[in-house]
Model the fold of this input.
Amino acid sequence: MEELEITAWTRSETGKGPSRRLRKAGYVPAVLYGAAGAAVNLKLDSKDLARTLGATSWESALINLRGEAGDRKVMIKDLQVHPVRDVIEHIDLYEVRMDEAVTVEVPVRIVGRSAGAREGGIEHMDLRTVTIECLPGLIPEAVDVDVTALGVGESLHIGDLNLPEGVRAVDDPSHVVVSVVPPVKEVETVSAEEAESEIAESFEEKEGGE
Done:
């Protein structure tokens, strides 16, 4: 996975009032939790942060943090987004060591079209992310799942995933990742006019038989 880069500045004031003023000035309040030592209060440029994260899966993003707090390798612990304006309001970071494994969620990426889908079946994605454990430098952008050989009524489980070397799945290996289910049969519907006609015909037949 490509490493991201973000510049940070330290901040001395904390609390709701100072945080609101920071946001108005174009910054996002942040807290860095170090591998050792006390937490550090930071501020990040809001536009730079939004541009850097972009469409990246932030749960597994490895970030080079530059600036007044020193150069560090960090990941995102928590991210708060405004429910209406869809902008980042606060971010918690934690420092990682490149020689120590981390546990993260990465997206599942379906590769190919299943044999079952070509026969009319429906592909159903049961898991959109999987939890893995590996060194920070080995975090994949996504876990690819090749479904081309999957037939109707068949499924692939976490234990079937072909993970890169050095990457281990944490979730239960029996969990279904993707399956192909039979097509839904169409239920024949009868209109009100057809129902009335059938009732009338049945009534006429009954009268004729008396």
About this structure: Residues 200 and 206 are 10 Å apart (CA to CA). The chain has two domains: 4-95, 102-181. The chain has a mean pLDDT of 87.
